[in-house]
Amino acid sequence: MKIQPVIMSGGSGTRLWPMSRAARPKQFLKLFTDETLLQETALRLAPDADEAFLNPVVIAGGKHGRLIVEQLTALNIEPAEVILEPCQRNTAAVAAVAAAWVARHGEDSLVVLLPADHHIEDVDGFRNAIAKGAAAAEKGLIVTFGIKPTHPHTGYGYIETGEALFDSVYEVAAFKEKPDHDTAEQYLKDGGYYWNGGIFLFKASAMLEELSLHAPAIKEAAVGALNASVMSGPARRLDEAIFSGCPANSVDYAVMEKTEKAAIVAPVDVGWADIGSWSEVASREDAADVIVVDAENNIIRTDGPLIAAAGVEGLIIVATGDAVLVARRDNAQQVRAVVEELQRRGRIDLL
Amino acid sequence: MKIQPVIMSGGSGTRLWPMSRAARPKQFLKLFTDETLLQETALRLAPDADEAFLNPVVIAGGKHGRLIVEQLTALNIEPAEVILEPCQRNTAAVAAVAAAWVARHGEDSLVVLLPADHHIEDVDGFRNAIAKGAAAAEKGLIVTFGIKPTHPHTGYGYIETGEALFDSVYEVAAFKEKPDHDTAEQYLKDGGYYWNGGIFLFKASAMLEELSLHAPAIKEAAVGALNASVMSGPARRLDEAIFSGCPANSVDYAVMEKTEKAAIVAPVDVGWADIGSWSEVASREDAADVIVVDAENNIIRTDGPLIAAAGVEGLIIVATGDAVLVARRDNAQQVRAVVEELQRRGRIDLL
User: Which domain holds residue A112?
Assistant: First the structure.
């Protein structure tokens, strides 16, 4: 059975300011390799990697159509379609659009729905996990993926597994919000809890049925917005009037917690990361535009100006052509306060 | 008697990299006020401040003629002449050119010869010191100025005073090189030692006579290079063949230590500073392009990009359009190592 990758590129975070901007969120940045996170995501499920994979569909923020086409074309990957959201309506709406798009193209393929802004180190391992999930999805289950936790991370949601169903596939016992540190430690001690990877695998028809049962307003608005969509340059733009009326909810809440068809592949141990701050990004001190003198344990990144760091340690130093961030590695979340101050000052040129 | 200010703008330091560059040494930077150090220097002895002061002559590096004219014109100060050195030959040559230029214009004015890259807080106090020195200079003495030391600075030369001559004017007992810390402390304890301000006041004829006696080769080359000079755009260019043959020496060594006419005005207590590193420059955290979140005791300066500093302390953070320096306040001299690395990498674009 063919697998249709649908890449969710709607994110617009500012946690990697000054590199991430409204016009260029983190999925468009090269954070780990010479490819951007979007490109990494597309290559992870490239058609030539496994003949099961179809050319990807990308569902993205309304202003990013051309950027997406550019970044995929640079990899010789032609998107099957780039679908632009006129507003953000969370992942359940995206899942509905994805399923409806596949149904509209006359197929009942499996859909793998995955965020554009994650890094996965072990791509083969990830494809193996997809293959395991596919066996369950073909039976009509809505499959999610449980990342093996490496430490008690408090920035991720967790999923508790229930009864075993097949090889590495379990029922979902519960979705857990981002825990405090003690709770996260307890999860790791207890076992059976996995990081919620935010990745889904399902038959298009199964997702549409479950949406009809548990989130009919979302399904109706998303399908309606797709049916009324129009081409705009290289991308298809969802109908704004209809899509803006779509309730905003996550796949987890709107579908997974309600359906009897939820399943989870676990453990998935593939070096997965959803980058929440600069403190999790690799330093690039070997770059031509970085000079380090007697400085250690810093995260230094530039996409233009030369950075010279002398005698300092434990810092995040990030420079773009128009802004510089200097923060502490152990308090990278302070970038939020910086972004809030920029908003207060009306510096939309830097946001 | 009229006083001819001659501003020595030949400096080319890199200690304030990345703002100071070969094309824009520190005298062309705004470090303390809304004026550059050159502009501060010109205003300090502006013609309208005291009718004794003539329009200034500026003796400068060969590539800075236009910049000097621009910066002075912006203050409505028209330089009497901008004289460009084809190569650096230290201050004795500059003093010789200054004296010869005045003699050539048919006057035997007093000349006040002062560096373009010093900051002086108390301008009225400085003019008072000049007035005291003028009484001695009119009698044919070569006058220097002893800055009252505020702490045992090891980055400045010192002058030991001898016998009193007039009000606040002494003979010079000795010039002292930059001392180590213990020696500097002893100077302060003993008293009678002053920072060498590198400022001179003399009758043009007196300087020419003392040069003839103690440094005839310098006088001959400097006067010859001025006589063979030609106008080049807005500035007068010293003859390169002649001037390059001029021995390089300081006024202190070539004249002051040898002449019997040396005198010193002391103490001069006017908030004088010769800025040796970023650690001595004021932070500009109230600038529109600086955001500080929970960060203290930093020196932050930008001439373009926004700088956001979060959670950090004791740092120097300086940004220009093409380079960023992050260093420790207590080790600002490490910028030298950065500049050396830039030279090794051949990054003349950043030097």
Answer: 3-274
